[in-house]
Amino acid sequence: MGEEGTEGTIHLLCLAASSGVPLFCRSSRGGAPARQQLPFSVIGSLNGVHMFGQNLEVQLSSSRTEDTTVVWKSFHDSITLIVLSSEEGTSELRLERLLQMVFGAMVLLVGLEELTNIRNVERLKKELRASYRLIDSFLGDSELIGDLTQCVDCVVPPEGSLLQEALSGFAEAAGTAFISLVVSGRVVAATESWWRLGMPEAVLLPWLVGSLPPQAARDYPVYLPHGSPTVPHRLLTLTLLPDLELCLLCGPQPPLSQLDAQLLERWWQPLLEPLRGCLPLGTRALPAGFPLHTDILGLLLLHLELKRCLFTVEPSRDKEPSPEHRRRLLRSFYTLVTATHFPPEPGQPEEKAEEAIHRAQAQLLPTLEEVLGRHLRRLEELVDGHWEFQGAAASGSPADTQC
User: Fold this and answer.
1) Dist CA 98 CA 303 (whole Å)
2) Dist. CA 191–CA 83, nearest whole Å
3) Where is the FUZ/MON1/HPS1 third Longin domain (predicted)?
4) Domain match, 137 and 149 both
5) Main-chain phi, psi angles of 42, to 5 degrees
6) How many beta carbons lie within 10 A of that of residue 63, not counting itself?
7) Less Cβ around it within 10 Å: N or C end of the chain?
8) How many other CB atoms are found less than 10 A from the CB of residue 241?
9) Which residues contact 309 (CB under 8 A, 6 or more apart)?
C-alpha cells in the first residue's frame, strides 16, 4: 500500500479563472512548508491545458505522470485551483478534497463575493495572505484528519458531562448559542447550535483555531462557506489553558470586552482539573486509561451521520512504526477504501454522496464480515495448535517435540 506523506513535494496553485493570473502559490516538501516555486511557464501550461479542455466542453479533472499526480478544480467559474503532488502513493481523492478545503479556507477568511466578483487582482492577492497559514496546514503532515474525512475531529474528554453543562451555562451568560471548547484543533465539547453548523465550516473553524499562533483572546472576522458565505460573522476565542480555547461564533454582540475574567472564572475556575485533563487529548484524543487493546497502534472512528471523527495514533507510542508513519498508513487505508468501495457516481451532487456511502456499506459489510470471520477462524486454529504444541513440549515427550 502506498504511504501518503512520504518524502515528496506538493505545489498548490490558485489562479483567476478568466485571466489566468496567479493569485498565490504554496508548496510543501516532506510535510513542511517550502519556498520552492514553479516557473511561470509551467503554471501557464497547466492552466492553459485546463482552459483548452473547457473550450472544447471537456472537463479535465486529473492527470498522472510517472512520478506526479495533478488535479484541477474550478469554483464558481472564477477561481481555478491546481495541485501537483510527487508524494509516493498519493491519491486523487486526497488531492480533490484538499482543493475543496483550500477553497473553503479562502471563503472562510475572504468571503465568496470577493472570489466570484474579482474587481482588483492585487487587492485580492493581499487579502488572501490571511489564509496562507491555514492553507499551509492542509499541505503539511497534520495530526488531524478532517480535511480527508470531511468530518469534525473530536476527542473523548474524561469529564464530558461536566464540561458540557458548563459550556451550556456559559453560552447563555455570553449571549450566543454557538460555542465550542477546542484543544489543538479538536473539538472537546460544543453546544447543539455549534454542532448544527454545515460543512465545511464545522471542520474549518476548529482547524483555523488550532493553526493560529497562541493568543489570550481574539476577535476574528470569518465567513461561513455554507451558512453565510457573503456576510461575515465574528469568531471570538478565549484561551483557558495552553492549547485549550473557548470559541464563540456570533454577530455584532457580544463585544469581546464583555467576556471579562470574572465571567470566565465563574464558569471555568471550578473545572480547572477537568480542563487540565483535556490537554493531553490534543494528541491522544482518548483519555488516559481508556480500555484499548495494547496491539492497536492507531484508530480512526467515523460517525457519518453526525459528521464527527476520532483519530489517534498515540496508543502504544513506544512501538514501531512511528506515530507519523501510522498517520500516513491510516490516511492511505481510508483513502483506498473510500475510493474503491464508496466512489461517488459520475455527475452525482456532493450532498447526495452520503446515500451512496450507505448503499456501498450495505454491499461491502457482509463481504468484510465473511472475510474477517474466515481469517479469525484460521487465527483461532493457529493459536490452538500453538498451545497444543507448547503443552506437548512441556510434557517432555520425545515423539511430540521432535522436529
Assistant:
1) 21
2) 36
3) 296-351
4) no
5) -70, -45
6) 15
7) C
8) 13
9) 145, 146, 149, 151, 152, 153, 154, 300, 301, 302, 303
Question: Which of helix, strand or coil describes residue 284?
Answer: helix
Q: 45: domain CATH number?
A: 3.30.450.70
Number of domains the chain is built from: 2
- Rounded to whole angstroms, the Cα distance separating 105 from 131 reads 6
What does each C-alpha distance from 120 to 1, 44, 78, 104, 286 come to in angstroms? 46, 20, 13, 21, 48
Domain contains 351: no
Distance CA 150, CA 232 (A): 23
| Strands of 228-241's sheet in order across | 186-190, 178-183, 244-250, 228-241, 217-224
Same domain for 40 and 180:
no
Q: Do residues 236 and 218 lie in contact, with contact meaning Cβ atoms separated by under 8 Å?
A: yes
Sheet bearing 308-312, strands edge to edge: 152-153, 308-312, 299-303
Same domain, 157 and 128: no
DSSP state of 203: H
pTM of the full structure: 0.82
Within 8 A by CB and 6+ apart from 188, the residues are 154, 155, 157, 163, 180, 181, 182, 244, 278, 281
pLDDT per residue as tens digits for the range 344-388: 655 554 445 555 555 555 555 555 455 445 545 554 554 454 444
Q: Which three cell numbers stand for residue 189?
A: 465539547
With respect to residue 47, please indicate whether it lies within any of the assigned structural domains.
yes
How does pLDDT run across 6-55, given as a tens digit for each residue? Answer: 568 999 999 999 889 999 999 998 878 788 788 888 999 999 988 888 88
Strands 62-64 and 32-34: unpaired
| φ, ψ dihedrals at 183, nearest 5° | -120, 115
Coarse DSSP helix, strand, coil percentages of the chain, rounded to the nearest 5 percent: 45, 20, 30
CATH number for the domain harbouring residue 164? 3.30.450.30
Supply the range of the domain harboring residue 13. 9-141
Q: Which cell is 316 given?
A: 502504544
User: CB-based contacts of 378: which residues, under 8 Å, 6+ apart?
Assistant: none
Site of grid cell 483548452 = 52
CA angle at 165 for the pair 159 and 168, rounded to the nearest 5°: 135
Is residue 264 predicted with pLDDT exceeding 80? yes
Contacts of 197 (CB under 8 A, 6+ apart): 178, 205, 224, 226, 227, 249
Shared domain for 128 and 156, answered yes or no, is no
